[in-house]
Each structure stands twice: as C-alpha cells, then as structure tokens.
C-alpha cells in the first residue's frame, strides 16, 4: 500500500462523491439539512487540490493533508469528524504501510471520531459504517487474506452498516432532533462512509 | 427554484459583498464580518457565527452593543475553524473573547477546534440551546440554538460594551440562555440554493411543528390551523418547559418568507396567551431575525427578564439589523 | 393558501392588535395608527395610509421623525375617507397636516374626499409617483407610488420634527418624490387572503418586470435570470428615466417573501451598477419595507441626494420599522 | 318607481354581487389587484344594513344613503366612484319618481363618476357600462316605452358596454399600468355595473 494508492483513494472518493452528491444531499434532506453531498463534494475537491499541490511523500502525509483539508474546508459536522478520522490515521500510520498497520491506523481514526462526536454504534451516524469496516479489516488481518480481499470485506461491512442505520432512531447530529421520525431513513454520513470504503477497494484493485 | 442569486456556489460571498457595500460600519474579509473600527482596548470581544441562511443572524448583528465579529459558513454549514480563529484574534482587545455558539454538532466542533488552536487570547464559550421542541436527553444532540441566540448576543454585547470582564460577560450570556425558550412552526419548507428544491414536502393543508432553522423537518405534522391555535401550540410548549412569569422579552420571529403582517397577527395571539398566564410582555421584537432561507412560518422566543437584563436589553445597539439608542 | 392568519376578514384588525401589543409607543383606534403621545403643538402633522399588505409601510413608520398617523385600509384597498379625516384631526398640532398619498386612483380619491371634508385644519397633499415601470402619460393613471414613499415619509417627517411650516414640509416631500425613481421585479405572485390563490400564475422559469405593490402583473414577462441581470434591468430602467449622478440614497426592498440574504445579493449588483455610472451610494437601506404580501421579488428605489436631504435622512427616527439616532 | 323599489334594487344587487363576487375578483386579479368582488360585497352588505337601519322615506334618501355608505365603507377606487354615482343621483332625483326623472338623475350620476375619475368612454372602466346604460334609458324615455322595458334595455346596454371593454387598452385605474397587457380582459368595474343594472331590471319586474 504505497503513497500513490492513498492519493488515488481520495481521488476516487472525490469522483464517487461527485457522482453521488445529490443522493447524499437527498438523504440529508430527509433527516438533516440537505447539505451533506455539497459539503463532502466541496471538501474532497479541496483535498485533491491540496494533494496535487503538496506532493506528499508518504501515506501518512497524504492522510494528514486530507484530514487537515477536510477540517479546514468542509465545516458542518462532517468536516471536523471526517477530518479527525484521517488526521488520526495519519498520526497512527507506520511506514512501510502493511495491511495490519493500516488496520490499526484505521481503528485509531474511528476511535477519534467516536470520541469527538461522542457517538457509539447504533446512534445512526457515520460510526455505524466506519466501525464495522474497521472490524472487518481487523478480522481480515487475523485471517491473513489479501489486501484486495480485506478492503472488499471492509467496503461490504461499511455498506451493511450503513443499511443497518435505516431502522435506527438517531441519537446524535441533526437527525436526533426528529426523534422517531428519523426511523426509516439511511444516515447520510454512514452512506458517505461507504463511498470512502468502496473507493479504497476500487483503487486497490 | 426561484431565487435572487447569481449562482448557488457564490451566494454567501455575493451576499457578503452586498453587506459590505451597504454598511460602511462593517469590514468583511474571508467570510468574517467585523466592526470596521476594529477592537476596543479592554473590551471583551464577542464572536459568533454558523451556517449562512439565517440572516440577519449573525452577520447583521455586528456592531456597537452586540457582536464584534460573525463568521459566515456556507448555507446551513458551520464555518470551519480558520475563520473562527481569525475572527477571535481580530476582535481581541486584550480582555478575552466570548464565543457564542448555537448547539449543533457542527458549530460546536468547529468552534471547539478553533478555541483550542487560538493562541494568546483567552476564550470562553457559551452554548445556546433554547429550542424546546428537542428533548434535552441522552438520546439527542441536545436542544438546538435558535431565536434566543439574538437575546444572548444583544445582552452579552451590552455588558461587554460596558467593559465587564470575560467571566461576567460569559455568565450573563449563560444566564440569558437558561432563561430563554423557543418553539418554531413551519408552513412551508425552505429550498437551499444548491439542492434547488424544497428540503421537505409539506401538503397545502399541513404544518410542521417544532422545526429548527435549517429546514430540518419538525417533530410532528398537524393540519394547518388559524394563527391563534398555532400560537397556542408554540406557547404551550414554551410554557410547559419554563412557566411564564413576571416580565418577559418576547420575540415573534419570521422564518424568512413570512410577511410582517402575519407575524403581527401571531404576536397578538402570543401576547393574549401570556396575559392569560398572568405574565407581562415588557419587551418585544416582531420580524424576520433568525431565519431559515425562504421558509414560511414563525418561531416564538421568550426570555424571563429581571431589571438587570432589561437594562442591558435597552442599552444602545447599532447594527444593520438591530438598532436603537444611537 | 397557507398564511398565519385567523380569518381573511379579520387579518388587518388582528395585525393591528399585534402592533398595539408590541409597540407601547403607538395608539391604534379604528384602523388608524397614531403616536401614543399625541400631536405636538406647532408641529406639522404627517398622515399617510393606503391599502394594507405593504407592511411595514405605512403603519410601521409612525413615530418620532416620521409619520404622526397611518390609516390602514383593507388588504390592497385604500382606506375610506372617515379614518383619514379622523387621523387628520387627531394629529393636528395647529400647524396643519400633510397628506402623503401614493398615486393610485383609490388612494387619491379617498384622500381628496377626506381633505375636502376636514374642517378647521389646513391640509396639504403630496402625491408619490416614483415607479418608472408605468409611463406617465395621458394614457395611464400616472406613475404608481412605491418605494419612494418611505423616502418621502422619512425626510418630510424629519423636517416636520424640526418645526418647519406646512408649506416647507410639503415642498420637501414633493422634492424627494421628484428626485426618486423605482422599479420592481417579481419572482412569484402574491396571494391575497380573501382570494386565497395567487393573483397571477408565473411559471417556474419566468419573472414579471415592472410590477407594482398590489400583485398587479407587470409590463412584461421574461425568463428568470441571475440576480446581476435582474438588478441591471431594474437599474437601467431607473437610470434611463433619471440619470444616476452624485450622492444617492438607494433602497433594495423585498416584496415580503424574499429573504434578506437575496436582497444583499441584489444590493451588491445595484451598487456595482451605480459605481459603473460614476455615481455614489452614500445612504442605503436593504430589507422588506414596502411589500406586497408574500410576494417574492425586489424593487430598487433611488433618490438623488443633496446635503440638505442627507441631513434630513440622517436625522433621528424612532418607529417600529425604521429607527436610528435615538 | 317607489321607495321600496329602490331599497329592493340594492338588496338584489347585494345578492348578485355576493353570488358573482369571485368572478369579479378574478377579473380584477387579471388586470388589477384582486379585490373588486370583496370590496363591493363588503360595501353592499353595509348598504343593506344602512337602509334597514335608517328606514329611508324617499327614493332620493335611499340613493344618498347608499352612496354615502359606499364612500364610507368600500375604499379603493370603486368606493368613491360608485358612491358618487348614487349620491349624485340622490341629489338630482325629483319626487315623485318618473322614468324620465330617473333617467335624468342617472345621467347626473354618470357625469359625476366621469368627472371624479377623469374617465371617458373607451378608457376601460365602469363608465363603459354606465354611460351606455344611461343613453339607453334616455332613448327609452324618448320612445315612451314601459319602465320595465326601459330598465331591460339599460341592463342590456350595460352588458354590451362591459363586453366592449374586453378589447380595450385601459387608460384609467390600475389596469392602465399593464399597458397592452390589459387588452383581452373585461373590466371588473364595468362587470359590476352590469350587476347593478341587471338587479334594477329584475326588481322592477
Ligand atoms: N456526533 C456525531 N458523531 C458522529 N457522526 C456525526 C455526529 N453528528 C453528525 N454526524 C454525522 O454527520 C453527518 C451529517 O454531516 P453534514 O450534513 O455534512 O453536517 P451537518 O449535520 O452539520 O449539516 C450525519 O449523517 C452523521 O453521520
Ligand atoms: N379613474 C377611474 N374612473 C372610472 N372608473 C375607474 C377609475 N379607476 C378605476 N375605476 C374602476 O374601478 C374598478 C376597480 O375597482 P376596485 O378593484 O374596487 O378598486 P381598486 O382599483 O382600488 O382596487 C375598475 O375596474 C374600474 O372600472
Ligand atoms: Mg447536513
Ligand atoms: Mg449543515
Ligand atoms: Mg384595491
Ligand atoms: Mg381592485
């Protein structure tokens, strides 16, 4: 897992988010304020620019740059939350990057967002997609599967986790204001987390 | 969607340019609105901000007796930490800076990050969370900050103008928040420029109860009713949470697309309700102050006054959207 | 139709009750809004009025430095002579009374009848007719009175407050009207409470150019365009009729359903246009001041200032909707 | 033509206007401000009340009361205009009321509105219905036809006059602001004038 792969990860995520922007915004319209797609699209465009400009020399640098850019450019709840995921990953990632090292860094990122957002599994947030993805990665490392296989499993776990947010009642973020009316809708942040994980699996292929 | 804009992407920037052109008393840089004359030595600085789309909140409340700076995020999107840091440094007069933050995950996180990163300036924060439509429980992100933000900014601003120290300014801000409650009702959804269509569909015969200020759907949908009944629903919710008593500051606030005439119709009902509970409206505001783009509807905010707060409310204020006494 | 009202019949009355409850500085009787403290000996009284639905015009402009009384007709229907007579008698301080009348057949006839029937009070009248969308020719009822009414009321009100005699107050009112031009554009129709549906249908992709303030359709329909282009259309019309030069008082006015943010977007374009013509915006207003119920859209009004008019514009004013200097 | 007939005239007009209120308002929406039906409905309700309260003793008194009430209760353009028609008629009407006397008084009323509104035939106003009605009455008097026949002819003339406003471009009142766009719509005031004339023919029958 080299530096280019990490750059490609964000480029592919940016492409996917652009493609899915309106769906993300629609999900946010249902239980939030209709800006999640726009927010992430703006943020990832900036991330790609920042990566192009700074020519990072390590995977850790890619992650830190991406995280800082998200914090500095997105705003809203998802900006600091996603930003913290990647900044924390960047801090935790050891060189050279192995699947095990990536898995550990990813888990550190997920913990960072749980702490910052005070969110736990089942609160109907991005954590519900990110935490299962992290668990899938850890299991893949334990089982010694290929990088590609591991990332595919992580993407699948994220997708299942996002789907599982549909019947949940939100306890964090704007959706929590709706009380029971938040039930029956997929969490936009969980849906965008799936895009991150799918993008990673794609570029690794 | 029909809006007076150039492009969805440029709307915040374009509106800020309009503010700069209209108000020589303001200086606007990088999506932060400052008082043109800069910080006053020894005065606590007041910084607020949040997503745009709530105008005049916050940008229209920068000026003597109220805010020193307001950070304008994208539509309904909390500003990022950088401009908050800039604003904090820019308004410091050596006496520290108060961040007035509406209680939304995004606002809280971005202001927190900014406060942590600011160096050399003492920063205190107050969270505004007045919206009784949201239960303040473990199962929510806590109450939203809505109309009472104006009360907090005005009253804390007046105290800061008098030269009070940061701790006292923060304390009065906190006190105003604790004494304030709000509830909102939407007749229509709003349309964000980038989405281009209404955030939610609301049939001609229904209203949303307990809305926020971001086009979030409310807690429940009920049939459209006369202004009297809607005002009662809102006031009952406020009263249930904090019984009305004594002297009250009352704001009937439009959500952006509601004409003044209708707000006065609502105010008459609100005033009658309050009289019925034996309390008194001693100060009031009627108008579009804390809005949600083009949404039709209203919110009512009530603050329990005492003599000290009344005096601070009455103190001179000179901002684009609130002005008296000078 | 979704409105915050009790019934279509009671909306004017209900809104006036709300004004009375919100503003102890006003006294409201029989659909006339007065300053609570009554007439001042030796001061010329200013009376205006017209159909309701344009709030804050005129009722929100009663107070120190502006109107002494405003007569509120039914929605979009000029008041009848009786309340105008009452108002005229009620505000007379012995120095005579100026009627400020927007140029509409109904307003003109009813104010004329009232003026004829008033006994014992000297009455002068000024007709406001600033709307350049209407040709002032034998073939029309003449230009409509729209946004400049606010300019006339503010500036004449300031002069009256200084104790100037009726002839001078009337003359300055006339002068402000002559120096002022307006043009309006609608994005949507308005809905009168009694009709219950939009006065005209306007497709999602079109705007009406040259509208008045009663939901009258405009002179032409064109495709919806960016704010820059719409502002240019309005400003070209104003400029063609009276070239922009020197110091200008500029109002970008919302039609009632347009959020402040969009008005600032328009103001930025208006200011750029004016700069391009070599003139200067030295005073400005941005907000919903002369409205047409819930209509979305804007009008722009421009008055050529001189030092005397600027001084009168800056003079203290204390009304529900316009307030500065005290 | 006795006092009761004149009272009945306004009662029948009030009934007709109530019935046709929305049509009048729709006509006014097209080229004005959508209140003509509401205005007249309110005004005629008040006229009926005033007539019931004051128990007028002559036809002239009925007309004066009606005119004054319209002026005092309607507002807008049509209030003073219609009010002046009937006040002037009241002034001009001689007792006992003959058809010839009525015709002369009616003409005086029409002249009053022309003067007050500075409106002439062809300006697309109520005058375009009222003036032909007056002319028809005068001709009927000359020809010595029955009261009923005369009033029927006046009503027909008013209706034709109102219809003739459709292709006109308005030169008075709000509709004049529309310029050429006023063409193709019937003038609401002309339409309501037809109701007045129809009501009179009906109650005379
Ligand atoms: N406290 C929180 N912890 C974790 N994730 C959160 C929290 N609050 C919100 N989120 C995530 O952020 C998403 C919304 O992001 P976005 O719409 O960009 O921000 P905003 O809510 O400020 O408009 C939600 O769908 C949810 O997944
Ligand atoms: N100057 C005028 N002379 C004669 N009739 C007029 C004049 N102006 C308007 N009208 C009549 O008044 C009618 C409109 O009445 P109404 O809608 O009640 O008043 P407003 O125009 O004030 O809303 C028009 O259709 C026209 O027939
Ligand atoms: Mg959102
Ligand atoms: Mg947001
Ligand atoms: Mg009218
Ligand atoms: Mg009309």
TrEMBL record, chains A, D:
Superkingdom of origin: Bacteria
Residues in DhaL domain copies: 4-202
Xref: Pfam families: Dak2
GO molecular function: glycerone kinase activity
Keyword DNA-binding: no
Record-level GO cellular component terms: cytosol
InterPro entries in the cross-refs: DhaK_L_YcgS, DhaL_dom, DhaL_dom_sf, Dihydroxyacetone_Kinase
Any one GO BP annotation for this protein: glycerol catabolic process
Record keywords, A-Z: Kinase, Transferase
NCBIfam families named in the record: dha_L_ycgS
UniProt-recorded name of the protein: Dihydroxyacetone kinase DhaL subunit
Species of the source: Nonomuraea fuscirosea
Highest classification ranks of the organism: Bacteria, Bacillati, Actinomycetota, Actinomycetes, Streptosporangiales
UniProtKB/TrEMBL annotation, chains B, C:
Residue ranges of domain DhaK in the record: 7-324
Superkingdom of source: Bacteria
A GO BP entry: glycerol catabolic process
NCBIfam families: dhaK1
PANTHER family attached to this UniProt entry: TRIOKINASE/FMN CYCLASE, TRIOKINASE_FMN CYCLASE
Gene Ontology cellular-component terms listed: cytosol
Species: Nonomuraea fuscirosea
The keyword DNA-binding is annotated on this UniProt entry: no
Protein's name according to its UniProt entry: Dihydroxyacetone kinase DhaK subunit
SUPFAM superfamilies: DAK1/DegV-like
GO molecular function: glycerone kinase activity
Gene3D superfamilies per record: Dihydroxyacetone kinase, domain 1, Dihydroxyacetone kinase, domain 2
Keyword set, alphabetical order: Kinase, Transferase
Pfam name, any one: Dak1
